[in-house]
Structure formats: C-alpha cells, structure tokens
Amino acid sequence: MTEFDETKQTIRKRFPEVHQLQVDELVAQLKATGADQQPLLIDVRAADEFAVSHLPGAVQASGKQALALARAAGDRPVVVYCAVGYRSSKTAKALMAAGIENVANLEGSIFEWANAGHSVVRGEHTVREVHPFDKKWGQMLDRDLWAFEPGKPAS
To answer: Among 28, 71, 78, 125, which residue has the fewest nearby CB atoms (within 10 Å)?
Structure first.
C-alpha cells in the first residue's frame, strides 16, 4: 500500500459520512450530464494553490463562500476537492451539517486527478503542473507535475 493509499484510507476513516467520489466517477458524470446538471466543482485550497492550476470549471471557495455556492447550486451535485482530500472532506462534512445533501469529496483530489492524466487549467489554458502544497504531501503528486520545489520560492 502506498503512502497515498494510506492517506486516503485515513481520510475515509476520519470522515465516514462523506461520500468519496472516485476520479473516474467524476469523469463519467462530466461526460454524461448536460451543462445545467454538471456538478459544481468547489476547490477549497488556498488562492495561491488554485492560481497554479485547478480542475476545469472549478471555483475556489471555502467556509461561508463554499456554503453559499453549494446552496445556490440547487439540485446540481456538489463536488469539493483540495490537494489530497482532507480539507475537502472536512468541508463536505460541514456542508452536509448545513443541510447540503448532494455533496461528495473527490477522493485523492487534484493530486489523484492530475496523476491520472486528467487536465488541469490556469485561467483559460491547460497546464501540466499542480501546486505540491508542501514536501510531505507533494510526495503523493507525480514529481513531473510539481509547479515548483516546496520550500523554495516559486519562479
């Protein structure tokens, strides 16, 4: 079992009430649904992480902003994500406690998404780099996807 698998298992145990949506399931949802039923993708990472790259169509929000967006989504499913899934599972749990029913965490979050070869964007452009968060968590992201070396200034 890899460190990433162990981390995902720990997150599942810590947040058993949160549905952990697999990357392939999200890909299928995005392909199968019309624009009005596309999942609302909420990236709960910090603004500097989001600025490096994010899932296409995602919005960056946390706390009260994430709750307001989830409420405004109506019947659309809400999928939250972060780097590996801990922060987003915590957010999903809070959204559920506030009455949002159709919410899921993207298991493995942007690291698993990018590791699987799915597109990430910066603004309007597809890129091949992701904010590695820090040296520990960055080990779960394929090294060739690191936007910069954690602990060193980004160029």
So the answer is: 125
